[in-house]
Amino acid sequence: MKPVFVPNYYESFRCIAAACKHSCCVGWEIDVDADTLAYYDTVTGEMGKRLRASIDHEADPPCFRLTPDERCPFLNESGLCDLITELGEESLCHICDDHPRFRNVLSDRVELGLGLCCEAAAELILSQTEPFSVVELPPEKAARERHAHEDSEALDDLTDALIAHRKALLPLLTDRTKPLADRIRHVFHECDIDLSENGTDTFGSFSAIAALLRDMERLDPAWDAYLDALEELTEDPPAELNGEASVAYENLICYFLYRYMTTDAEYWPNAKRTRTAFAVLCALIIHAIHRATGGKDLDSLCETARMFSCEIEYSEENLERLMEAVGDALF
Ligand code: SF4
Questions:
Q1: pTM of the predicted structure, to 2 decimals
Q2: What domain range includes position 291?
């Protein structure tokens, strides 16, 4: 069995369900995995009929038919899930059961995390006061993770090196005896990354970053207003990176570092450097957008991070384009 690792805050996550302003049960395609589909076929009575009428079996993979206002057909008027209410949480398909969790399945371990696209997860991640760390789940909890039951094999050399690299960077990034900008500079120096700690020189200007993001696939039209504001941003960077909010930005960098250090690394040249720069630059772009839109507090920062995550992280195409742009800036 593979050990399962999570960020230190992972187990504190709670879905806020009906209180959620940006429910994951609205506006997203919800694919139904084969195991759950087979189970749904066995459900009898009214719920069985409703389930079969609500799944588009012709789609590949099959998915729930959303209502005209793009809600999951089982999301009721109170903001609760009828499947959970009637059949229990174990009736959820993998996507619903997982969300907002992400997983990186490596040959010798599984790494789980919480995605920033969920407002409750964003709030939890950004408001952490304890420095980020990666912890192993106890075996009885790890056993609930389906990929944990796969055989554990040795890590390939690249992934092994990337995990060691991430492990070495985390203490540098979370060393609060130094201002965050100095820590970023230190990390860049360690990785031989020739970029300034404020990130603007990476893409030339804030308007160039806005143009790059504007040219990407769009999920929510509201993202345009964020990009309009970013385009207009000209002032010099970030006193606040070293101020009160610096812990939130530190948390963001650690989040991106944890999530992306190893994913598909074999397809990218110089993964150590590009993934490190990518993690820092994602946090700096969120910082720039937050300032550009006049954000002042943790709530608005969480919302900016959530929007960024939905638009960039949850579009494979957009994520890849941003990683490519970081790679181009580095080499
Ligand atoms: S987005 Fe997060 S908080 Fe909102 S309904 Fe989904 S899991 Fe719950």
A1: 0.91
A2: 157-330
